[in-house]
Amino acid sequence: MALPLKGKTVLVTGARQGLGKSISLGMAEAGADLVICDRITDDGKLAETAKEIEALGRKTLSMGGDITIEEDVNNIVNKAMEKFGKIDVLVNNAGVTSQDSFEKMTYKRWRLILSVNLDGTYLCSKIVLPHMLEKKSGMIINVSSILAKEIRMNIAYGVTKAAVERLTVGLAREVRREEGIAITCIRPYFVKTEVVMGFMEGHDTSNFEEPIIWQKYPAMLRPPSRQTLREKYSIKPRSKRNSARSNGTRKCAVKHCVDIPRLRGEELAVSRDG
Q1: Is residue 179 part of a domain?
Q2: Contact 76, 87 (CB under 8 A)
Q3: What is the pTM of this model?
Q4: Residue 143 lies in a domain
Q5: What is the pLDDT of residues 51-101, one digit of tens each?
């Protein structure tokens, strides 16, 4: 059976552990070559992720970088383009959180959480998207959280994830008529990652999701057909002049909602609103 992502290149941020590592391995299992990056590289975890990807027979480019620094993101993307010549999928996974209450949280930590989770998603998307638009093909997958809509635990983290969802919807609408581009967002439930379990010591985590679930799912995401989008969101076709220019192959950027009854997490429904 043909692998669904064979020949594709996927860039995953925050890939040294947890959800980022699981998503990277899932993409590799589906046939993709990987560009993986993380701010921390000296503990050997990012290198271990790269070895596991290569053990699956895939090529990988592993590097350090701070996604809140534009120069670092440019360096990651430029090296990815040099090695693979393209980025087919960007997974904006990198994120940080804190156990601090609002009262105890310092402004410095507040800014760090917003900078990594929101600014990092913006910067990576901003720098990768032009390459996708140029080749008229690509998907951006933003990683949100159940805390975008459930009011519990850390305020700053939930704020950033709600903002990431709004960024997803807004960007999808802006590029909705670009050929071959899809923008979407996944909203995991609580996942048993190293960081989460460190915070939840002594608490009941029996209903938390295993990382393997999200290792399998992101690699299954696909842009919908143009006809499906037209029927679901009543998107009117362009004029004959513009349609002729696209040779009848244009795909809308808006990603349709996929029902995931087996998961507590979900894919955000991104729709055209006018």
Answers
A1: yes
A2: no
A3: 0.77
A4: yes
A5: 999 999 999 999 999 999 999 999 999 999 999 999 999 999 998 877 788
Distance CA 204, CA 194 (A): 15
- Look up residue 191 and give its amino acid: V
Identity of the amino acid at 220 = M
Structural domain boundaries, residue 188: 9-267
Rounded CA separation 264/262 (Å): 7
> Which of 233, 119, 100 has the alpha carbon at shortest distance from 167?
119
Residue 150 in domain? yes
Average pLDDT, integer, range 229-244: 48
Q: Which segments of the chain are extended strands (E)?
A: 9-13, 33-38, 60-64, 89-92, 138-143, 181-187, 266-267
Q: Count how many domains the chain has.
A: 1
CA distance 228 to 85: 31
Residue 51: give its domain's CATH number. 3.40.50.720
> Of 107, 157, 217, 233, which one is the catalytic site residue?
157
Q: From 32, 38, 92, 79, select the one nearest 58 (Cα to Cα).
A: 32
Catalytic residue status for 157 = yes
Which pair of structure tokens corresponds to residue 214? 């999200």
Residue 69 is classified by DSSP as S
What is the β-pairing status of strands 89-92 and 266-267?
Answer: unpaired
In the DSSP assignment, the letter for residue 210 is P
Give the span between the Cα atoms of 142 and 168, in whole angstroms. 7
